[in-house]
Amino acid sequence: MARVSQEHLDARRRQILDGAALCFARNGFHATSMQDVLKEVDLSAGAVYRYFGGKEELIAAIVTEVLDTVRGIYEQAARETPPPTPDVLIPRTLARMREARPATLDNGEWMFPRLMIQVWTETTRSPEMAATLSEGYQNVRAGWARIVEGYKDAGMMPRDADADAMARAMIAVVQGFAAQIALFGGTFEESVGDGLRALMAVRPPGQDA
Amino acid sequence: MARVSQEHLDARRRQILDGAALCFARNGFHATSMQDVLKEVDLSAGAVYRYFGGKEELIAAIVTEVLDTVRGIYEQAARETPPPTPDVLIPRTLARMREARPATLDNGEWMFPRLMIQVWTETTRSPEMAATLSEGYQNVRAGWARIVEGYKDAGMMPRDADADAMARAMIAVVQGFAAQIALFGGTFEESVGDGLRALMAVRPPGQDA
DNA sequence: TTGTCAAGAAGGAACGTTCGTTTTAGGTTT
DNA sequence: AAACCTAAAACGAACGTTCCTTCTTGACAA
């Protein structure tokens, strides 16, 4: 009967997760030591190990949070009516990621894309994480294929276009730009739209106007 | 004067690099131990340490090889005349990566994309690697922007389109599909073309035909 | 309101292990 | 005989984790 409030426990857990995420975004999961995390969150080992069974559990918690965030944003995008064109949808998706997870590194760079690529590498190591990611990806792909069907219904593109392939391509653009932001920094969500508009404006020679 | 032939030395070095690449693609740089590498290449510690000063040097060699390979392929694509449309250029770029580095994991999955995402995470840790990557990226972006200018010259797209933004977008597609192949496997270079063709066929409502 | 106290929360030294690397001695190839 | 390589042991450093101690909290009795 000397417990501290649930809010306190939740806040501590969040504090640990946030500090760990910062460390992991900086150095990756396996090049950051527990002592790095302990120093970052300014807690003792005893405290952290009360909230997480170990490093693996901490990593799993971060991976899950990242995957849930990304999946949620993709699905939110798929629910928009009417579906925005890709040059609007894709930068908006990136912008929503920044809104949802705006935290930055010490150098001011956006943390979340770095975390994303770290999660990608980690999922290739863990069958359970890989399964979670695959499941989410399947759903997102189906959702974004429905967007493409919406384009067709609106007469914006031919009915015989491959909706699933196009969904994959749009997701690839999001992933690719996330990687570029992680690697090169900057806030170029806007130029993403310009690039996509340009890409959509390409007309193979000897085809209509 | 009982040296072994230079070919032998080169072959040993390559054997070590290939084995290390396999380990790194499996588990990432920092979750694979030197002993993992030693076992994979079936050499003693003394032998490996004769060719590489240590783990860091081994990692740096792998990173450099991956970056050089990718950069070479991007630049080869930029030299094609006449420049193929994106729906041809991009899957061809991925196909050339597979030709250049066809090695597979134990499960038959293509190794190189996994190595690519590992390299991405590693470059965020090392300023020198980050500088190398940034420099290569700048050049590739400029090269691919020249492709876009070629499209304009051929009357395939409006002159006022943002060539640099479009170059970024095309590179993002390559990167995104590399990530998808690394994460989900499969050989869907072909559907990449379908997806891009569909994307390029989108016409915003209330705009031309 | 105040004092007491058990239990929860946090601290921090220390544990055993594993890491990357070096060293040793001996064997094999050229 | 010189270079190459093996096998094994050993190194200090760093790792993840545990364990015991200390501090803090909140219920309850006075």
Question: What would you note in describing this structure?
Answer:
The first copy, chain A, is an all-alpha fold and 209 residues long. Chain A has a domain at 62-200: Tetracycline Repressor, domain 2. Chain A is built from 9 helices and no strands. Chain A has helices at 6-27, 34-41, 45-51, 55-78, 86-100, 111-123, 127-153, 163-184, 189-200. In chain A, helix 1 (6-27) packs across helix 2 (34-41), helix 1 (6-27) crosses helix 6 (111-123) and helix 6 crosses helix 8 (163-184). Chains A and B meet through helix 6, helix 7, helix 8 and helix 9 of A and helix 6, helix 7, helix 8 and helix 9 of B. Chain A binds a DNA duplex (30 and 30 nucleotides) through residues 1-4, 8-9, 12, 33-35, 43-50, 54-55. Chains A, B: Keywords: DNA-binding, Repressor, Transcription, Transcription regulation. Chains A, B: Residues 10-70 form the HTH tetR-type domain.
The averaged pLDDT of chain A comes out at: 95
The helix content of chain A is over 70%
Assigned CATH architecture of the domain at 62-200 in chain A: Orthogonal Bundle
Number of helices of chain A: 9
- The poorly predicted ranges of chain A are none
Specify the overall morphology of chain A: elongated
CATH topology of the domain at 62-200 in chain A, by name, is Tetracycline Repressor, domain 2
C-alpha termini separation of chain A: 78 Å
Beta strand count of chain A? 0
Just give the CATH class of the domain at 62-200 in chain A: Mainly Alpha
Task: Give the oligomeric state.
Answer: homodimer
Order of helices and strands of chain A: HHHHHHHHH
